[in-house]
Amino acid sequence: MRIILLGPPGSGKGTQAQRLVQRYGIVQLSTGEMLRAAVAAGTPVGLKAKEIMAGGGLVPDDVVVGIISDRIDQPDAKHGFILDGFPRTVPQAEALDSLLRHKHLKLDAVIELRVNESALLSRVETRVAQMRQRGEEVRLDDTPEVLTKRLASYRSQTEPLIHYYSERRKLSTIDGMMAIDEVTRAIHRQLLALGAVEPKTHARSAAKAAPAKKAKAAKKPAKAAEKAAKSAKSAKKAVKGAKKATKKAAKKTAKKVVKKAAKKAVKKGAKKAAKKVTKKRAKR
Ligand code: AMP
Questions:
Q1: CA 68 to CA 153: how far, in whole Å?
Q2: Ligand 1 pocket: which of 52, 88, 124, 140 to mutate (most atoms within 8 A of CB)
Q3: DSSP string, 105-161
Q4: Dihedral of CA 152/154/155/158: which sign?
Q5: Which of 57, 175, 231, 250 could in theory staple to 52 by disulfide, Cβ–Cβ 3.0 to 4.6 A?
Q6: Contact (CB, 8 A) for 172 and 109
Q7: Is 110 exposed, middle or buried (0-12, 13-18, 19+ CB in 10 A)?
Q8: d(Cα 19, Cα 111) in Å, to the nearest integer?
Q9: Which of 13, 45, 48, 53 to mutate to test the pocket of ligand 1 (most atoms within 8 A of CB)?
């Protein structure tokens, strides 16, 4: 399966892409991530991209097309991929079309995450706060000023892709303002409707991609069940023990009460008898 995730910065493309990776066992190809790695490594591409990225602009088309073309050829992309952050311009989309044609690959769908622009700034602010809390390095371009520029370049250069792909009958639009799980479900339903995934085959391919994980996951519930059974047994034992103890205690108290009552009765009887004797003696 090969899909494109389209949406402005902060629309949740990255989050949804990660979920799709786990579900379908395909790879996420994020040009933003690749460029950040290149910047960190100080490669020629990184050096070219650094300033542009920090300012919220777009890296030249030929640079990103080159990166994507190489990446698609790698073995882990053979089962399929999600393009996240690429294409971002119409020339990039055209280059991708010809690139896929040459490689005899078909694009299954373009999923657009539509979001309310006023929510984007607060979403990115939340993302930054969470990253800081986790002690992660915060992206240089995740500031309100740069975000405004990134949004402007999305509107002018990336939004035309909505028309581009809708003309080619590839576009599916999903409400990106829903809860994360809801968006994931909506994407899955859409992929099913398009025939890009089948309920059974996608499960198999995911199992192939991560058999160790699946086996572990399968073991987990079994272990949990074992633990639960054990604790249920011990709970039963504890209840039985408690019942026995209560019975014993009840018997003991009953015995004590009877003994006390008997003692009292004996005492009373003895007193009465003694009184009678003294009365008789007095009469005499
Ligand atoms: P992202 O992580 O997708 O938000 O990308 C971060 C930055 O990397 C963008 O603001 C651009 O400067 C650059 N970038 C990522 N993908 C592309 C692309 N397809 N075309 C041009 N620039 C890109």
A1: 20
A2: 88
A3: ----EEEEEE--HHHHHHHHHHHHHHHHHTTPPPPTT-SHHHHHHHHHHIIIIITHH
A4: positive
A5: 57
A6: yes
A7: buried
A8: 14
A9: 53
CA distance 175 to 111: 10
Q: What is the pLDDT of residues 250-271, one digit of tens each?
A: 555 445 544 555 555 545 555 5
The H-assigned helical ranges of the chain are 13-24, 31-41, 44-54, 61-72, 90-102, 117-133, 144-153, 160-167, 180-194, 199-209, 211-283
Nearest to 14 by CA among 147, 109, 90, 124: 124
Residues, the chain: 284
Q: Which amino acid is at 225?
A: A
Q: Greatest CA separation found in the chain?
A: 138
Q: Which of the following is catalytic: 48, 123, 139, 170? A: 139
The answer to whether the beta carbons of residues 142 and 127 sit under 8 Å apart is yes
Burial class (CB in 10 A: 0-12, 13-18, 19+), 271: exposed
Sign of CA dihedral 133, 137, 143, 147: negative
Q: How do residues 105-133 score in pLDDT, each as one tens digit?
A: 999 999 999 999 888 888 888 888 888 89
Full-model pTM = 0.70
Neighbours of 182 (CB within 10 A): 13
- pLDDT, tens digit, 9 for 90 and up, residues 4-25: 999 999 899 999 999 999 999 9
Q: Which residue has the tokens 């079309």?
A: 97
Q: Are 32 and 59 in contact (CB under 8 A)?
A: no
Q: Verify whether ligand 1 is closer than 6 Å to residue 202 (CB atom).
A: no
Residue 128: what residue type?
V
